[in-house]
Structures are given as C-alpha cells and as structure tokens.
Amino acid sequence: MSDKVLMKGAEALAEGAIQAGCRYYFGYPITPQNETPEYMSRRLPEVGGRFVQAESEVASINMVYGAACAGVRVMTSSSSPGISLMQEGISYISGSNVPCVVMNAMRGGPGLGNIAPAQADYFQAVKGGGNGDYKRIVFAPSSIQEGVDLFVDAFELADKYRMVVMVIVDGLIGQMMEPVEFKTRIDVSTLKTPEWATVGRHGRDHANIITSLTLDAAGLEQWNLKLQAKYAQVELTESRIEEYQMDDADYAIIAYGTMARIAKTTIRIARAKGIKLGLLRPITVWPFPAKQIQTYVGKLKGTLTVELAYRQLFEDVQLALCGKIPLGWYGRGGGVVPGPQEILAAFEEQFGKGR
Amino acid sequence: MEHNVVIAGFGGQGVMLIGELLARAGMEEGKEVTWLPSYGPEQRGGTANCAVVVADEPIASPLLTEPQAAIVFNRQSFDKFEPAIEKGGLLVIDSTLIDRKASRADLDVVYIPATDIATELGNSKFTNMVLLGAYLGKVNPISIASVHGALSVFLTGKKAALIEVNKKALQAGVDFVNKK
C-alpha cells in the first residue's frame, strides 16, 4: 500500500496546513471544526510551532494579524458565526497587505443556526464580509485529499500575493474519514522572512511599519489601486475548475464542495438513464472560473446550479452566463443536504427528461 | 463496484467502531473508502449512525440517502432506516434486541440474535462484531482477513488480548448466515 492514512477531515486538514509550513495557529472553539484546533494544539509544539487558544474570535484573528506582520505562515479556523466575528480582522489584514490562511467549516445559518453542513457563507467569503474593497482567494475543496493538497497552494499563494486565502469546507468534510496522503512537505527552514516583515530593523536604514490606516485620501486611493492591480492579476491567473464528464455533455450541474461530490452520483444515475449530464466544479470560488464556464456557451442546453444556500453561487453563474445558456437552480438551506436522487428530480423538473 | 452500508444503533454499542473497521480494512486492500458519521447535538443513550462506502472507483457521494444495506442495533434505527434502503437491499437486524419484523417484502433480511451469540462468547460487547460478520457473510466488500488486520490497529497494548475473541465473534456472524 501507499502512504495513505485514514483520517477525519478536520484533523487531516490541520496536518495538511502543518505540512504546508503553517507553524502558528490562533483560534477559538466552535463546532463542527473543533478537531482542527485540538489537533493543532497537539501537533504544533512537536514541530516547533505555537498554538494559542484565544479568548474570542476577535482576539484570534488579531493574533493572526500580528503573526502575519512578522512574516510567518499562520492560520486560524472557525465556523460560520465565528468567521463573522473575524471579518473586521480579515479586512485589516487585507488592508495591511499581509498573508494568512483562514478556514471556515460552514454551518447552517443565519445567526447561531445549527451545526449541520451548509454553503450559505458564500457571499461572505467571496464578495465581502468586512469593510472596504478587498478580495481573498477562496478555495472550496470537495474531498479531504483535495483539501490537504490545496492547503499547500493556500499558503504559497497567500505569501506570493500577500493576501488572505480562505479555505471553505463544511461539517460533512470535517467529520468524515477518508484515506489521505500527504504528498508535499514544505521545509520551513527554506522559507525566508520577507523584507517587509516587522521583525526588527537589522541595520536597515528604515523601520518597517504595517498599518491599514491612511488618512490622506489620495494616498489611500493609490494604495487601493495597488491592491486592485494585484486582485486583477490573481483573477487572471489563479481561477481553477474541475470539468467532470463534460466532453459530450448536453447539460451541466454547477456546484462546489460537498454539493459537487453528491452531484457526481446524480450524474452517474442520470447517465444510466441516457441524460448527458456533466459537472462544472469551481475549485476556486474567488476568482470565479467564469472564463472556463463561458467556453461551454453554444455547447450546453442548460445548467443547474446546486448549492446548500439560496442563490448565492447562482449569482456568479448568472454573471458568467446570463442570457447565454438557460439557467436552472436548486438549493437547500439550514443544514439540509439533498441526496443525488433529489438533485436529479430537480433537474428533470426544470429541464424535462434532458433530451 | 461499490458497496455501501448504514450502521445504526445506540451510542456505546460500537456502531461507529465497526464502520471504521470496515473503512480501514477497505483502505488496506487498496480500495476507495469513506466513513461519514451522523453528528449533531448527540446525547448519551441517543442514536448514532455512520455511512460507509467501499469502492474500486473514486467515491462520489459519501452521503447515503438510499443505502444498499443497513445494519441495525436497535428498534429506533430499524424504524428509521428500513424505508430508506434501496429496492432489493440487505437489512441485518439484531433479533435479540429488536422484536419487530421487517415490513418490506423486497428486502433480504437477516434476523440474527447477535446479542445472545455475543453473550455466549463471553460478553455482549462483541455484538457489533457478530453483526459485522453477518453483513460480511452476505456481501463481500472486503475479506475477513482484512478486518482481522484492521482489528490489530484498534486493539493494541492490553487490549490486544481481545483480538482473538473479536475474531471469533466476527466468525460467529459469518457462520450464522452461511449455515442458512
């Protein structure tokens, strides 16, 4: 056998982050991702890292901010209501042009909601959340292995672009077990402290100062333009998608994360019935893989967007395809997860028998 | 080829454990596996279940709305999962603890007095292994030898002494369905 181990998602993702070079974790407990900080508290000291359970989510994200300013690989994780509390800090980190990784194990909302799987934080992750014009790269893995692999990219891209990278999963991915292999190990001794890091002057002729405050309007506009240029570059080069059984597809389901995985079973059932259905699965939801999806204009008779939310992903699909392909939608909320047959029924209701 | 099963009972009956054994044994055979627990505001004495998929191909949905089989340890789980099983599927029931008969005629139902068999082997705690044996006697997602291998991962140190009796309980379940 290979080096596969059977691990719970929330723990495997934590190990994935450590293999990716994460040495600092600050967090506050919340279900359904408590196994992540628990694992970090045990493992980080073993690899020379530091784990701190903060007094709140607000404190956690500001500790992350501080460590990010020191130029180290740092992350936090939480679940929906906790991520809401972190939005101010995420905006500050973005405005300060420093890197970090934030994982959200999304649960049913709004409010305290429940602890069941959901994707209703899509807008918060992709469109905004905190104040001001900022963007994060948002990865949406649909298996534990993919999540582990993406953590390497998450830390690499966070450092490369000096920005916040979010990894959004849900309780289903967090709680399930799958075989996983850790293929890449970043040797942290090879990571150089960035020259902008606030770790002392070391003979430089100036002190590094990191802030998100710029009182002069013209100066802040220039700063914003710099950020916008960076986001434009990311949008151009970093969007990713999986195209599954699309070669001969008449129709496509568009879904990400857990929902995409369940949709693959729907596709198997549909194809057995003679419906040529494929899947377009955004792996990054920001940047949204609009260009890749647009290549199917003229080839598809329709798409069905499926999500554990109410028309959030659907809005990005509309922006990419509106008026060019008939667009269907199906979603469940509050932590209810539809099965493969239920998705097929929604497809047949909206597109007939798909012929 | 894909095999999937829901295993359900009270918390503490070893429901999650035999699911994990199945998944681990499948992984050791080089198969694709997923193990998905029910999770929520669970409480002591409440019901728990897990969904296990063992397949040759990458697994799409780990969530089973129409499982091929169910192994039920108590009446509540029986009532909940009997209607969900796919047409012609398999239902394994601990008939020591469940007095009701299945109401569906299309299912292959195994009524096995698993708690009684386990008690005869020395401890009712082995009931889960007897039920897993009965399931594996009916379908072969993995070999019994792989389950034996997986047992040695779970039962280490002082608990290693329990491996043999667990193997016996597993075999008792296999034998029960095979002699029929």
From TrEMBL, chain A:
GO molecular function: oxidoreductase activity
UniProt keyword Oxidoreductase, yes or no: yes
Pfam families: PFOR_II (PF17147), POR_N (PF01855)
Coiled coil: none
CDD domains: TPP_PYR_PFOR_IOR-alpha_like (cd07034)
Keyword Plastid: no
Taxonomy, superkingdom: Bacteria
Keywords in alphabetical order: Oxidoreductase
Domain Pyruvate flavodoxin/ferredoxin oxidoreductase pyrimidine binding, residue spans: 15-244
Domain Pyruvate:ferredoxin oxidoreductase core: 249-343
Transmembrane segments: none
PANTHER family per record: SUBUNIT OF PYRUVATE:FLAVODOXIN OXIDOREDUCTASE, SUBUNIT OF PYRUVATE:FLAVODOXIN OXIDOREDUCTASE-RELATED
Protein name from the UniProt record: 3-methyl-2-oxobutanoate dehydrogenase subunit VorB
Organism of this sequence: Candidatus Cryosericum septentrionale
Gene name linked to the record: vorB
Automatic annotation (TrEMBL), chain B:
PANTHER family reported in the protein's UniProt record: 2-OXOGLUTARATE SYNTHASE SUBUNIT KORC
InterPro entries (alphabetical): 2-oxoglutarate_synth_KorC, Pyrv/ketoisovalerate_OxRed_cat, Pyrv_flavodox_OxRed_cen
Keyword Endoplasmic reticulum in record: no
Annotated protein name in UniProt: 2-oxoacid:ferredoxin oxidoreductase subunit gamma
Stretches of the chain forming a coiled coil according to its record: none
This protein's UniProt keywords: Oxidoreductase
Species name: Candidatus Cryosericum septentrionale
One function term, GO molecular function aspect: oxidoreductase activity, acting on the aldehyde or oxo group of donors
Domain Pyruvate/ketoisovalerate oxidoreductase catalytic: 11-174
